[in-house]
Amino acid sequence: MSLSVRPQRRVLVTKINRSQSFAGVNSSADRPFRNLSAFTPTVSRKTGSRVSRMFSMSHKSPPPKVPQPNRLDEVYEALKKGLTAYLEVHQLELEKLSTQIRESKRNSRLGFLYDLDKQVKSIERFLRRLEFHASKIDELYEAYCIQRRLRDGAHNMVKAYSTGSPGSREARESLAEASKGYKEYTENMCLLENELESQLGEFHVRMKGLAGFARLCAGDQYEIFMKYGRQRWKLRGRIEVNSKQVWDSEEMVFLPLVTEFLSIKVTELKSLANHVVVGNVSCETKDLFAALPQVVAVDINDLGTLKLSLEVTWNPFDKDDQPSAASTVNKASTVNKRFSTYNQSPPDTPSLREQAFYVSVHQAGLLRRHGRW
């Protein structure tokens, strides 16, 4: 997958001897979005690194003062598409596990069947919670649309009373009442927009590395700074002799936002007082609402000679105690391995007729052995 890069004017940086492509070029404001191809470079991570989280109250965005209905419509459509994909993925996994249970009732151990049944019940609970979550988002969006229509009606009334003559006292009172209603509906839209934003879940971002098409040299050091609303993530990395990359941080959890875009700034650290800005881009995030983890690539400079690769996993819930796609879907590989292991030599249970046949054969063997046949 690729992230759409929003046009953004950059500052012209100093010239670099190794490659002209690392210098940030002034980009025109009307430059079209760029769609980038995905890739997966090799990255070595330092031991002991952990996931950084952004759940302090300072990172929670306050309700906006001016609603953004057009932007909210785009995010809502992308969110519904992601939730639908989540439901489809888990429904397929549920059908697959149910099929395995039906096929293995005779030729599998009870422990294996019990494990499969627990996974089926876990996915069923997750599906019910996911459907409830989707219905809650629909209700919030419907309430938002109602407030938007009321706000548009109040705006038209204010415009009509304002263009006409002041007239009587009743006209002035009607204008004041319409203005009060317009303000109230605007506040309601802002509150609903903030509430809907809190239902977007979370983005788990994993650093995959930089790729420079033979322009990354051993010993180079880079600093990557990501800004997403009030959320920040700064990490530093170094290019090793064996073309591997070592980064001081590997994961970050971002809370999705409605009106904000992900800003990425890459700086090459050359000396204490000589840092060169390689690129500074702003990326769209509404395409990250997907059921399965996806690797996205971002062009850091205009020529596309330096790319940043990130693995993004979307969790529709922002609580750690809730199951996610990775915790349920990834169990399929383990189930398949155990299924094949148990089916190599299944302990078949003989029927009553087979048991009677085995008993008669055994008795005949005993009679033949003692000479009584």
Q: Can you describe what's shown?
A:
This protein is an alpha+beta fold. Among the domains are: 138 residues, no CATH class; 118 residues, Immunoglobulin-like (Sandwich). The chain is 41% helix and 19% strand. The chain is built from six helices and twelve strands. Strands 1-10-9-5-6-7-2 form a seven-stranded mixed beta sheet, with no helix packed on it. It has a five-stranded mixed beta sheet with strand order 3-8-4-12-11, with no helix packed on it. α1 runs antiparallel to α2. The radius of gyration is 30 Å and the shape is flat. About 22% of the residues have low confidence. Belongs to the RIPOR family. It holds the Pfam family PL48. This is RIPR1 regulator. One of its GO terms (cellular component) is cytoplasm.
Number of helices in the DSSP assignment:
6
**Biggest sheet, open or closed, and with what strands and sense?**
7 strands, mixed
Runs with pLDDT <50, length 5+?
7-42, 44-59, 320-348
Question: Whole-number average pLDDT?
Answer: 75
How far apart are the termini? 78 Å
Helical/strand content category: alpha+beta
Strand runs, count: 12
Rg to the nearest angstrom?
30 Å
Q: Which features characterize this protein?
A:
about 375 residues, alpha+beta, Immunoglobulin-like, seven-stranded mixed beta sheet, five-stranded mixed beta sheet, about 40% helix
